[in-house]
Structures are given as structure tokens and as C-alpha cells.
Amino acid sequence: MSSDTATDPQKLPQHIAIIMDGNGRWAEQHKVSRSKGHENGGKTVQRVIDLCIEKGIPWLTLYAFSTENWGRSKMEVNYLMNMLAKFLEERLPELMQKNVRLHAIGELDMLPSKCRKRLNHCLEATAGNTALNAVLALSYGSRQEITAAARKLAEKVQRGELKPADITPELFGNHLYTANMPDPDLLIRTSGEMRISNYLLWQISYAELWVTDVLWPDFGRAELDAALLDFSSRNRRFGKR
Ligand code: IPE
Ligand code: IPE
Ligand code: MG
Fold it and tell me: What percent of the chain has pLDDT over 90?
């Protein structure tokens, strides 16, 4: 198969979701602090955004911080939150120039107010952009998301706005953080772990999975091309023959 197949627009995923893992192991390998690993992981984020724009992939969802990541040391959590605030402030002009629309999913109220304010500002400022929808999963946990949707629906039933029989997969999906977003076609995880880690459990029902041993700070064009080439050769049956 030629590598052109990977860029055949007919065979490109419309939505890539990524579990950006391995910053800590990258730091260990390079005998630097975990913070340095996260800093370099941040650079990969911009690289992957640029690659998706170049390839014409309209949706990209990045797992940046999980609900469970709040359980890391205070120092690491603070570093990651400061990095997020800095990213949102420094990268906004570039996101505007590249016509990127930013979205966020997760328990955003849990974020420090500095992050929340900058995030809201970026969400508003980029709302009219159309080249790429970049979704940041922040303080995100899929079980929490599904539980919150169930609660919203239960409240609507309790208020008499909805009958239990009205609850369909479509309606349920519309109560998730990802309402109005297409489901990912391709889920990429770096650093070799064969697990989902509470990410988009509902939305990846029929996503193609691709795992690389490459650590997130080292992820780039070669790895994305390999994932796209593999994706283009998958026979997606969706349960049919
Ligand atoms: C991913 O890298 C970044 C976040 C989860 C925030 P890790 O920090 O999980 O790196 P490893 O898994 O320890 O190598
Ligand atoms: C998943 O990575 C979360 C993010 C990439 C933000 P983790 O490193 O937290 O996941 P586990 O602990 O290996 O499952
Ligand atoms: Mg990890």
C-alpha cells in the first residue's frame, strides 16, 4: 500500500481522539524532571494541531487531564494547571491565525479560576473558526460524564419533561459533554499502554484503536502517518457483514 493512501481524503478519519501518554517516562529516559516531560508534551500538542490542519482532519480531541489525574502530587497538578493557563494565553493568536476552534469537555468547574477564565475567553474568541475543531478533555472522566448525563435525564423525568421511554441512545448522547460533536473514528494512545483510562467510553464504541510505543513528547508526523495508513486499511463493519 502506498503512503498516499494515508492522505486519501476518502479514507481519512473525521475525528481523531488521542490519549497523550508518556510524558513522565520521556522525562525519565532523558534524566530530566517530569515537568520537562510535560513541557515537551505541550510542544507535541501544537505539532499535532498543525498536522491535522494540514491533512484536513476536522476534529481532534486531546486527553489533557483526567479526573483521576487530580490524585497526582500537588506540585505536578500545579505545574500542569499553570502550563494549561500559559498555553491558553500564549497560543490564542496562533489558534486565531490558523482558524482553529477550541472546545473543552470535562468537569471544567474543577479547574483553577485562572484556567477557567482563560479557557472561556479562548472558547469565545475561537467560536467562529472553522479549519479544525480542537477539543481539550480537561478534568475529564467518562464515567463521571455518563453519570452526569443520567442525572440530567432523571431530573427531566422527575420534572415531567420527559418519559423514561423517550430516552434513546441519541437523546442520551445529547446529554454528554460531547453533544453535537461527531464520535471519534480513530483513537490513538501513545507510550504503549493497552487501556482506555476512562476516556470517551460512550463515544469510542466503534472507533478504530491504534497504540504506539512512542512517548507523547516524541510523537510527530511519522507516527500520525503510520496511524492514518493503518486506519485507511481497516475494514469497518459496524456489526454488519
Ligand atoms: C501524560 O503523561 C500526561 C498526563 C497524564 C497529564 P504522564 O504524566 O501520564 O506520563 P507517564 O505515564 O508517567 O509516562
Ligand atoms: C491518561 O493517562 C490521562 C491523560 C493522558 C490525560 P494516565 O497516565 O493518567 O493513565 P493511566 O494511569 O496510565 O491509566
Ligand atoms: Mg501516564
Answer: 95
